């Protein structure tokens, strides 16, 4: 069993990074091997384009990202940053994405990771090399004032799952959502962190991921 953790928050002292640390500690406690990518610390380039693929310029009149990505797969021509991330994905059974929900979506750097790493010919498309994995989101939000707003958040998050990982045929694990952490006091935040650890243990045990 191996888990890959991706965290996308610019502040290392943020609650998102605290949740990321809880995930690492919990996996270590369960004796589960993991890899990680801290996109801001790693200065991950968020913009997909011709620079992702060595030797592709000049092969056609106009640039096509999907065609360039398939060219890179066939010719081992991705940049080292993409190759490294794809290797981590290939080696894991479960992917956990840790991020704040900004404007009902991913932070730009995480969307860039999706664009540049989950490439045509690797993660999706005919003869894609990457086998479907399991995926889970751990998300913070600005807060929900009532059940209707909580349901609205859930609908948006379900869409973020289905439009990407559902399309690729991955097994989707229900998310851990921490609403309104900026308005919470220290004790409440500590309880959320403990709840996250307990949730991870439940997910891993329920799906028998520990023994895989």
* Mean of residue pLDDT values: 92
The total of beta strands comes to: 5
What is the CATH superfamily? Answer: Flavodoxin domain
Q: Tell me the quaternary state.
A: single chain
Q: Percent range for helical residues?
A: 40-55%
- Give the strand order of the largest sheet, numbering strands 1, 2, ... along the chain: 2-1-3-4-5
Helix tally?
6
Give the radius of gyration.
18 Å
The biggest sheet amounts to: 5 strands, parallel
CATH topology: the name is Rossmann fold
CATH class type: Alpha Beta
SSE-based structural type: alpha/beta
Number of domains: 1
Shape: globular
CATH architectural category: 3-Layer(aba) Sandwich
Low-confidence runs of at least 5 consecutive residues: none
Distance between the termini: 5 Å
| Succession of helices and strands | EHEHHEHEHEH
**Residue share in β-strands:** 15-25%
């Amino acid at each position: 069993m191996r888990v890959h953790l991706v965290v996308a928050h610019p502040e290392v002292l943020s609650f998102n990074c605290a949740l990321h640390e809880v995930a690492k500690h919990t996996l270590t406690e369960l004796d589960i091997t993991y890899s990680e990518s801290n996109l801001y610390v790693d200065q991950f380039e968020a913009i997909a384009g011709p620079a992702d693929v060595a030797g592709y310029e000049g092969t056609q009149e106009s640039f096509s990202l999907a065609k360039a990505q398939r060219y890179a797969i066939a010719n081992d021509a991705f940049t080292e940053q993409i190759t490294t991330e794809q290797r981590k994905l290939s080696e894991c059974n479960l992917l956990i994405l840790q991020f704040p929900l900004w404007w009902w979506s991913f932070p730009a750097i995480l969307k860039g990771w999706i664009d540049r790493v989950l490439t045509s010919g690797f993660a999706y498309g005919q003869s894609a090399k990457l086998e479907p994995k399991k995926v889970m989101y751990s998300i913070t939000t600005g807060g929900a004032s009532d059940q209707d707003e909580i349901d609205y958040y859930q609908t948006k998050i379900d869409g973020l799952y289905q439009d990407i990982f559902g399309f690729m045929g991955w097994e989707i694990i229900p998310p851990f959502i921490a609403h309104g952490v900026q308005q919470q006091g220290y004790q409440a935040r500590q309880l959320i962190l403990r709840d996250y650890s307990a949730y991870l243990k439940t997910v891993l045990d329920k799906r028998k991921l520990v023994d895989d």
